[in-house]
Fold this protein.
Amino acid sequence: MPRNIPIGNGNFLITFDQDYCLRDIYYPHAGKENHTDGHKFRFGVWTDKRFEWVNRDWNLNLDYVTESLLTHVTAFNEPLGISLLCNDLIDYRENVYLKKIVLKNHFDNEREIRIFFHHDYHMLESATGDTAYYDPDEKAIIHYKGDRYFLMSGMRENRQGIDQYATGIKEFHGLEGTWKDAEDGRLEGAPISQGSVDSTLSFSVRVPPNGEQTIYYWICAGKNYAEVSSLNKMIMGHGIEHFIKRTENYWRAWVNKENLNLSNLPENIANLYKKSLLILRTNIDSNGAIIAGNDSDVQHFARDTYSYMWPRDGAFVAYALDMAGYHGITRKFFDFCLDIIGKGKESAGYFLHKYNPNGSLGSSWHPWISNGEKHLPIQEDGTGLILWALWFHFDKFRDIEFASGQYETLVIRCGDFLASYRDSETGLPLPSYDLWEEKWGIHTFTVSAVYAGLKAAGNFTTFFGDTKRSRIYRRAAEDVKTAMDKYLYNKEYKRFLKTIVPDKNGSFETDLTIDASIYAPFYFGVFEPDDERVVNTMNAIKNRLWVKTDVGGIARYEGDKYHSTAEDIHNVPGNPWFICTLWLAQWYIAKAKNTEELNEAIPILQWAASRALPSGVLAEQVHPFTNQPLSVSPLTWSHAAFVAAVLEYLNRIGSIKHNN
């Protein structure tokens, strides 16, 4: 189920699904730990002896307030005669989640209406050993385990505190939890429970005929009782509206800080550009880790999540953010990478598969040995792309003190590795895993990324006057380019190959599958976008991988089975991916010589904008027949690709006008 509206501040991240159920609570990192483990926090209404949990059966609209990470959610239940206008936010500085509910009574009589909030914590991603209790001093429910505390309270009619509460046992001996106790409109649970526990609280208001009442609810996150108690008192001291207004204003200032002129773009593209910046910001940890995605439902497929920093994904996101002017965020990301490359096996100059938000090594399925022989379980593109993005960052902002800190440890180690990790006869990079993390071999995408990384390392060494290394890196880059043309461009098929795999006879097995990732030679500067080899390759991608349904879009590759929804691979070679479709737009932009050619990219950008959720969230994939989001949603890389494509379009307009 997609996460329709994420909100966060880099330390505290909350996501809601399409039922408007709170589904993920990450603290103290964006992406780690998930204290719900994906379980639902229900939100319901009781009146006139009827109870309804808010879900898709209501008339729901989930969106954000314009240009802000403040939600704007409307919900209407005609049989109950009740509508809700909700604003959710996480304060941009403090680890506080706040919800404002304007509750409207659509009947002609005064009514008592009760709002219920259910909490299904799995603290530290486990249901074992939690405690939930009512704290009379704070007038709040508190859940804790070890050094993780969450305090829930609220107010209505200028009164702080809770009208009813219950704590209880769940997921044990068939017990479902206190949310079942709420459905008669009354809570009569214990004031404390331990083990596998949940809790529910409620607020009661009297609403005049066709009138309104406002209810506030909040969650304070901390590492001990004193922290959450202090936050609770801070809310009461400043007033809830203070936090709402300052957070709304902060994000509006943040997303508009560059004062970018978007008037040359259709309105839906301009709107999604700003929403994409805000949404991808929710998946960036305050310590610098750029997380691929924080939708815990994906673990139903693999018992793992996307809540990791992949160097490749992170490099693309950093590149887009630097284009957009957010160098403060990307500096932290590159410092995060610097810390990684300075320790463990990574000190040899390569990044491993993926990393946790705190910098520790993430889970992996890449082995260190195959057929009895040791090999590096790496995706070499990640190492090349970090260098590529780092040079772009430095070249744009020219912060020499920052670059000097990166130079000796990250640039030199990674540059030396890329230059040396090559076959002495062919000049090609040695085999590694492809960007989809599926295939071992030598890949057009990876070779292009290695070329870009070597060129970036050469630029750094030239800048810092290291002429010897500069010659080594530049020669290595040219050797890689020559070898790529010789071994990875197939003259018979007139396109670049996805993969070649060395065999024992000194030749290569070729993978003729058309893969969207073979767009890479133009994007990373190996060949010009109008080079015949690139044009042939991009036309092959467009002709073979465009999904031939009303949905359209570009699939990853022929016969892609990941979240597969169709058997007819001729018409549906795979599900359409946002990043793959946007790569086609980026090629149109890069090769454009005039505005007419440039505008070939607009329908692709509109394709992406029209397939976003109403909130602006972009998934990894969409269903080829229904447009429904598939796999992780939101995917940070999808939003970064959209941001980059928009900025490349605007930059190209400027260059075309200047040249004319």
Remarks:
- The two ends are 49 Å apart (CA to CA).
- The mean pLDDT is 95.
- The longest helix spans residues 636-659.
